[in-house]
Amino acid sequence: MNEYQAFQTLNLNTNSSFKEVKYAYRKLALEFHPDKNSDEIDGIKFKKVTSAYHVLKNNNKKLNSNVTNSTKWNNKKSQSETEQNFRKKKPQWGAGPKGKTPEEDWGRFTKDFEASNPNFWKKYEEEFWKKYETGKNNSKGYEEKNEKTDKVKSEINFSTEVDPTLCIGCCSCETIAPEVFVIDKRTKMNPKSKVYNQRGTGFKKVMSAAETCPTKAIKVEDIDLKKILYPW
User: Do residues 63 and 20 touch, judged by C-beta distance below 8 A?
Assistant: First the structure.
């Protein structure tokens, strides 16, 4: 799947911001999740939107690490401004200055969905996405965590496990690291993910799968230090 196809899968324009990408992904993931939609038991549409999200997420990471003259993610700011804004800038709500792409209007996107799913959305929003954004936008905390993990990426002796009480079988871990995780497709109701090969892939890929899990069901631990590396 290329970038254009990924935007089409998430029903977005190619100039959409990464915040809009994340919102569209979580909305469609909830809509097509097999546990929430009886017409999507096979999970094909759910896997497709998850794959699209990761294509755009990886492209966004590349843009952050190699900023050039302008970026579609942050309205043609300078290299230094773009990097700082991705890490530090606080969200602005409503329309931006003339000539700029407006920031997300959450009321416009979530009014109908919140009305039909108030409890699930509140828990999902507060417990996952708020923490996710805080961790990414807080440069000090983000860099401190990276300092701790950069050194051990190539040498860490880690273990991975899935908490079945938290797993909702969303398949994101299987999509990112199929060498490690597998979904029990024989289970018709509430299928669970499990680790079938601890050494199927490297630390970075396993951490990416763990960070993407919406319920934080994946635990990554340093065996030698007996320290939990994720969730933080």
Answer: no
**CB atoms closer than 10 angstroms to residue 124:** 17
Average confidence score pLDDT of the chain: 74
pLDDT at 211: 92
**Pairing relationship of beta strands 218-222 and 227-230 according to DSSP bridges:** antiparallel
Is 209:171 a contact under the CB 8 Å cutoff?
A: no
Which residues belong to CATH 1.10.287.110 in the chain? 1-137
Topology at the third CATH level for domain 152-232: Alpha-Beta Plaits (3.30.70)
Report pLDDT digits (tens) over 45-63.
888 888 888 999 888 888 8
Q: 3-state SS of 106-169? A: HHHHHHHHHHHCHHHHHHHHHHHHHHHHHHHHCHHHHHHHHHHHHCCCCCCCEEEEECCCCCCC
| Domain ranges in the chain with CATH number 3.30.70.20 | 152-232
Residue whose token pair is 């990112």? 176
For residue 169, give the nearest of 133, 127, 221, 218 by alpha carbon.
218
The verdict on whether omega for the bond into residue 231 sits within 30 degrees of 0, i.e. cis, is yes
Residue 202 and residue 208 in contact, taking contact as beta carbons nearer than 8 Å: no
The CATH fold assigned to 1-137 is Helix Hairpins (1.10.287)
